[in-house]
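#onboarding

Welcome to the new folks! Below is a worked example of what a typical request in this channel looks like: someone posts a single protein sequence, and someone else replies with the predicted structure as tokens. Don't worry about understanding the tokens yet, we'll cover that in week two.

Example request:
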Amino acid sequence: MAPIPKGGTVAVTGSAGFVGGWAVRLLLDKGYRVRACVRDANDPGKTTFLREMPGYASGRLTIHSANLDEPGCFDEIFAGCHGVAHIAHVSDYNDFDYVKNVCDHIVESVEKSGSVTRVVVTSSIAAVIMEADIYEFVRRPVLYEDRYPDESNPKRTPERGHGYSMSKIYAQQAFTRAAEKSGRWDAITCCPGDNVGPILSAHQKEKGPWQHNIELMLLGECKQNQAYRPWMTVDVRDDAECHIRLLESISVRNGERFIAWSADAVPVEEINAGIDRLLPELRHDTPAITEIHPDHIQKREEELRGIWAGVELRNDRMRAATGVRFRPFDESLRDCVESLISVAGVEPQRRPEVDASDG
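Example response:
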């Protein structure tokens, strides 16, 4: 199917969110018309930042209430759109019947539009790497688009924390099948890594684990990452740019999926210490790392870190299809910290100032 036309109209679900907000802003910067979909368009805490974008004053950006849980909520919004960036989160990833119903009614709205030619569905690296057996990373250490978690492992169940990954894979497949059946539009999947970068609104500081973890570091708390996994990062602005370029690309095909990450793997210890390294003016009082693992996992720390050190992150397909150049992590971390302070009013825990006259 066709890519979206330059200056066309794009609906963005989850526009109040971290990635969705940046998708709206960058689409406007590129000259598109944007229909921003949020659960409640009258909630100033989550929509004021959208109304402050220049495109809203001119009418090029419109904001629409659309509760993802209500069938038909996108019917009028998608009508006349050329593309959809489906970035919104569902309410419950462990209820597969509910996830199916949400996918079905969004597909129905795309079909009813008669105008949408491409949908980019936001998935996650959890759909690539969320294994029930960590030794699967020893057997298959290359993390690229055609890699999926071992679905045959009996421990891969919602009860064991895999519902998110399983639902993301289901959504990808559901949209792909629907697009193939329709023949009028295509579905492309984007699997972002761990999003870091500047927030656009105060409420976004807790609308994603990674910027919230950086907020906690600023406040004096830093928890070890699960199974000692390094952060596999992408700047939120680059992630949003990937979504847009997938909407625009002439080289992608229905059912393809692409990973949006910089291919950097950064240990939480480096991130924690990096705030003071990048912004010494803050005098950030770098907190100690809080160990979250039980004793039997702590005893395996060296082994687990070695397994993660042996994996290879790839983004070849995304770079080839879109030409996106990913920012270095230091830039993402610096801009995230400064936005948490300036936009969300986070007050960092600081070291006492040293009086030069002392001693």
